[in-house]
Write a structure and sequence with these properties.
about 110 residues, mainly alpha, two-stranded parallel sheet, 3 helices
């Protein structure tokens, strides 16, 4: 036997990779971005603007998730974003009522 030359690559005797056939091919599964944005905007509120955007993005995300069953996740994110959006809209209306009209109507007057 002769010694291997330093310029020749060593043989590592790697095995061939084992390929296991699957019953069906599945496309990649990912979280819907609109659902995540809905959750974030609903939580941050931004004086009511974030709440409205959370509602729009949340309903849009749920519609996309329903159209592509099994391809997207994030339905719970969208649902929580919708809930937070509605809570933010109601809170904004209450704040506006008390700030603008409610204060004058609560004065007992002379």
């Amino acid at each position: 036997m002769t010694a291997p030359s330093p310029h020749e690559p060593r043989s590592l005797h790697l095995r061939e990779p084992v390929v296991v056939p699957t019953s069906e091919w599945r496309p990649p599964y990912y979280t819907n971005v609109a659902a995540v944005l809905s959750l974030v905007l609903g939580a941050l509120w931004f004086g009511g603007v974030g709440s409205v955007l959370a509602l729009v993005l949340g309903y849009h995300a749920r519609r996309e998730i329903n159209r592509n069953p099994g391809l997207q996740s994030g339905r719970r994110f969208a649902t929580v974003g919708i809930w937070l959006g509605w809570i933010g809209v109601v809170a904004t209306l209450i704040v506006l009522y008390h700030y603008r009209g409610g204060r004058d109507s609560m004065d007992p007057g002379p």
